[in-house]
Amino acid sequence: MRITEHMVIDEALIEERYTRSPGPGGQHVNKAETAVQLRFDVDGSDLSDDVKKRLADLAGSRMTHDGVLIVKAHGERSRERNREAARERLTALIRKALKKPKPRRRTRPSAASVRRQKAAKERRSRVKSLRSKPKPEE
After folding, report:
1. Interior angle at CA 66, CA 64 and CA 72, nearest 5
2. What's this model's pTM, rounded to 2 decimal places?
3. Four-residue CA torsion sign, 97, 103, 108, 109
4. How far apart are CA 69 and CA 43, in angstroms?
5. Distance CA 67, CA 52 (A)
6. What is the 3 state secondary structure string of the chain?
7. 65-124 pLDDT per residue, tens
C-alpha cells in the first residue's frame, strides 16, 4: 500500500476482517458482512521508532498493547467502499505520523499586553469590591 512517493507498506502487515455493520438497515445489514476492520502491525513494520511513537500517540485507544493499529469503517453499504475508506484512514494516519511536529518556541507577552491585563484585573477587582457589604463605622 502506497503511503507517499517514497514509502510503501507491505500488504502482509495489514489484515482485513469483515463483520456485520452496526445500526439500522434491515435485512441487508443483518445478512451482509460489509463493515471492515483493518489491523496494521505497527511493531512489525519498518517505520522508524519516532514515527511509531507518533502513530501510537495519534491512534490512542485504536492501538492495542501488542502494537497493532485497528481502523474500522462501516459507513457505506458496500464492502468495497468501506474497505477503501478504512485504507484511506490508515494512510492519512500514517502520513500525519510521518510529519515531524514543529518544536514550540517559548514567547513572552509584550509589555503593553501585560499592562492591559493588569489594568483589566484592577477594574474587575474594583467592581467586585463594590458588591461587598459596607463595613460598619465605629
Report:
1. 35
2. 0.72
3. negative
4. 9
5. 9
6. CECCCCCECCHHHEEEEEECCCCCCHHHHHHCCCEEEEEEECCCCCCCHHHHHHHHHHHHHHECCCCEEEEEECCCCCHHHHHHHHHHHHHHHHHHHHCCCCCCCCCCCCHHHHHHHHHHHHHHHHHHHHHCCCCCCC
7. 999 999 999 998 899 999 999 999 999 999 999 999 999 999 999 999 999 999 999 999
The domain spans of the chain are: 2-98
Cβ count near 64 (within 10 Å): 14
Write out the three cell numbers for 127. Answer: 467592581
DSSP β-ladder status, 14-19 and 68-73? unpaired
Closest listed residue to residue 74, CA positions, set 22, 137, 120, 2:
22
Q: Which set of grid coordinates corresponds to residue 80?
A: 468495497
Q: What is the C-alpha separation between 47 and 7, in angstroms, rounded?
A: 10
2-98 maps to CATH 1.10.10.60: no
